[in-house]
Amino acid sequence: MQTEKLPFLDRKYAKPTLLLIAILLLYTIQILQKRVDKAMQKQVYGKEELIYIANQGKQAKWLTLGHDALIADIFWIRALGYVIKNLKRNRFPYMFQLFDTITELDPYFLRAYIYGSIFLSTVGKEDYLAEKLLLKGYQKTKHWKIALELASLYQTYLQNKEQALAYYEKAIQSPECPQWYRDYAKRFREYVKNQPLDLMLRAYNALKKSLELEYQRYLQARQKKEDPTLLETRHQAYLRAKENFEKFAFHSFLRYTKKQMNLLRQQAKKYPPHSREYQELQKRYLKYQSYLKKLRDYQQNSPYSKK
Fold first, then answer.
1. Residues 221, 234: contact at Cβ < 8 Å?
2. Does the model's pTM come out above 0.85?
3. What distance separates the 2 farthest-apart alpha carbons in the chain?
4. In sequence order, what DSSP letters do the residues of 228-284 get, joined into one string?
5. Which terminus in the chain has less CB density within 10 A, N or C?
């Protein structure tokens, strides 16, 4: 029994069918373009801003007719325009929502994850939103390049050496990862195991400053009664900064300080109490003891503990 051929599969109907698909696709692009242009002219608190809501990608999906990647490319071009346009004002309140929309449309758009995180952490000064975008990308793709970007972000901006090492380890598991990254990961592993006190203090101060900045941004967004999407983004960034700071200060730094104090106690037993070596070790011990007291006082009386 012969199966009946569907009309649109017939060669004589192929051209009209393709033409109809092209018209529908162009119409879809035009609708999305109008939405973006209209949003760019919308007034928010008397200032011109580009409005992107967090679930815009999901809303746009049903209009794309299966051409999600093509629409994501269009949004990608608009994203670059948005960053360039706002460089003079140095204000990018909806940058994360824009790159989040692109990666909703195309979850395997590596450039959107990588360059979006670079824009967020450098020109936008939004380290925790850059982290959120990259974590989403790694969860979706498990790509070694995104793992490397996460490692770099944790090492350079978020001052979290342990997390940086974890993602370097994940990146070098890929056979496509270059050899020099493998060599660097090996050296970095040794560095993390033996990081000195001054680097720990620098990381502590950087994370504390980052926490204070994110909290002030959250307060300003709440006072200005920003739209719910932006307010929630600011709140999540603050909570992430708080978690990162407390994890480092009250776990890594605290553990490191106690370990060093124990080592100094053991070393001091080898020398007489009035010797120069003993006095030097005692001085270093008291220095660590003062840091330990500060950490415990801060843990008990943290200004962010109930916020």
1. yes
2. no
3. 105
4. HHHHHHHHHHHHHHHHHHHHIIIIIIHHHHHHHHHHHHHHHTTS-TTSHHHHHHHHH
5. N
Model pLDDT for residues 110-142, shown as the tens digit of each residue: 999 999 999 999 888 888 899 999 999 999 999
Euclidean distance between CA atoms 70 and 63, whole angstroms: 12
Residue type for 254, please? L
In the chain, DSSP finds a helix count (H) and a strand count (E) of 13, 2
Model confidence at 15: pLDDT above 60 = no
* CA gap 242, 248 in Å, rounded: 10
* pLDDT 10s digits, 46-67: 333 444 443 455 555 655 556 6
Rounded CA-CA distance 220/270 in Å is 56
Separation of CA 156 from chain center: 12
- Any bridge partners for residue 47, and if so which? 44
State both tokens at 304: 């962010």
User: What's the pLDDT tens digit per position in 89-106?
Assistant: 888 888 888 899 889 888
> CB under 8 Å to 91, separation ≥6 — which residues?
none
